User: Which sequence fits this backbone?
């Protein structure tokens, strides 16, 4: 049976949910908040987002999604254009090629895998930015950002899996 | 199919990096247009965040209200003394200026904008404010808060602009030690405390010294308060800024008519 126009439209809108959620989170991350020092160290929100969707619903966010999100991040954060896109797509690539590893794994394993992937992502980003701009980023800043990323992943994953159940899987 | 998309998009990302190196004007225009488009959304989102922050602050302050009150009373007394002194000096200064026919310093036009995004982080430090070309903002203008210097405008869109903070790794500001008049350059490092570099003699500095802009190179007017020396550690001088970047809500953009070293002749937002 061919899907009706409404069904196609519905499917299209649902496909936009992950990207929109990521975009909202990216904007939330730059909204000025009077947070204590450690919380200001800019976690890798886009890496967490892209990782979550690649692990749980790879059909809902393709490479184009990762690319566009990275582009927006670079333009918003004033980092060299293309760097975040590349890093995010590599995160997606690693997860998608190791897809079997992630299927049906408990949350702790997924979190541990994020720890590895996010470390690779932030080091790669720091390296490319150093190569492009000639400025070496302070290691302490890199590690506090990484630590915050790890801490924030469980609540983020909880919210996203709620959203996935409510907005995408519901028929 | 997926593999192909991946390869094409990775190539595109590398292409963008090269383009960013080659054509900075184009990239900054695209960035400005995007931040302009996102500003209304950021403005809406920043309001509840600001209210939550205000509530938290209130709670924190409530806890220490007695001690704070006593401290403020004491400070008020001290400041009243200073006020009398300042009035007397101001009057004396006026008279001396008249006597010596000093050329009057320009008073800047100013513009106030709300901070809607704080992209402070590991790789770059900047703010987005809701004042753009249509309100009179121009790239290179000086941004201050009540406590002191914040930075300067680097990209100006129609209704928003980007402030390069003093802590950004690309920030260089000519400064002078208020007491010893030793000149130096304040260099951002993406840390909360920028470095003081190119100081002629280290002996001229000790922790607690006040630092103000020197006005050399014409990018900043002289005498704007910047911060105090936080630590001197052989060859490495860290500066504690007067402003607290994470607490900025409103900033003032001053137009001294200086183009200085940040003038960007190719961008359309420059005055003719």
Assistant:
């Amino acid at each position: 049976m061919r899907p009706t126009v409404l069904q196609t439209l519905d499917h299209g809108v649902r496909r936009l949910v992950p990207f929109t959620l990521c975009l909202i989170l990216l904007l939330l991350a730059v909204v000025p908040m009077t947070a204590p020092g450690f919380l200001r160290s800019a976690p890798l929100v886009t890496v967490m987002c892209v990782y979550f969707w690649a692990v749980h619903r790879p059909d809902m966010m393709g490479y184009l999604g990762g690319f566009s999100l990275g582009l927006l991040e670079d333009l918003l954060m004033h980092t060299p254009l293309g760097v975040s896109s590349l890093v995010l797509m590599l995160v997606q690539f690693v997860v998608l090629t190791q897809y079997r590893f992630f299927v049906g794994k408990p949350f702790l394993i997924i979190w541990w895998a994020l720890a590895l992937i996010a470390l690779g992502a932030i080091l790669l980003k720091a390296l490319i930015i150093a190569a492009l701009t000639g400025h070496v980023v302070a290691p302490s800043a890199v590690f506090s950002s990484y630590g915050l990323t790890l801490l924030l992943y469980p609540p983020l994953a909880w919210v996203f899996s709620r959203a996935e159940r409510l907005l995408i899987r519901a028929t | 199919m997926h593999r192909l998309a991946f390869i094409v998009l990775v190539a595109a990302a590398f292409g963008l990096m090269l383009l960013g190196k080659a054509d900075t004007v184009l990239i900054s225009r695209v960035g400005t247009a995007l931040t302009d488009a996102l500003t209304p959304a950021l403005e809406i989102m920043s309001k509840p965040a600001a209210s939550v922050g205000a509530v938290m602050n209130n709670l924190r302050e409530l806890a220490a209200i007695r001690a704070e009150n006593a401290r403020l009373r004491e400070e008020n007394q001290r400041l009243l003394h200073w006020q009398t002194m300042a009035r007397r000096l101001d009057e004396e200064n006026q008279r001396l200026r008249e006597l010596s026919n000093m050329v009057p310093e320009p008073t800047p036009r100013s513009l106030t904008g709300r901070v809607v995004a704080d992209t402070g982080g590991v790789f770059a430090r900047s703010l987005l404010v809701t004042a753009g070309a249509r309100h009179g903002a121009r790239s290179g203008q000086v941004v201050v808060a009540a406590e002191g210097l914040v930075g300067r405008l680097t990209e100006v869109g129609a209704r928003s602009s980007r402030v390069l903070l003093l802590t950004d790794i690309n920030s260089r500001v000519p400064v002078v030690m208020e007491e010893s008049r030793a000149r130096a350059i304040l260099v951002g490092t993406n840390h909360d405390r920028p470095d003081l570099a190119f100081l002629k003699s280290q002996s001229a500095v000790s922790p607690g010294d006040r630092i103000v802009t020197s006005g050399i190179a014409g990018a900043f007017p002289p005498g704007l308060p910047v911060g105090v020396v936080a630590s001197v550690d052989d060859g490495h001088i860290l500066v504690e800024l007067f402003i607290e970047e994470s607490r900025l809500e409103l900033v003032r953009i001053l137009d001294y008519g200086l183009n200085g070293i940040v003038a960007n002749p190719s961008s359309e937002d420059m005055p003719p």
About this structure: Residues 64-99 of chain B form one domain.
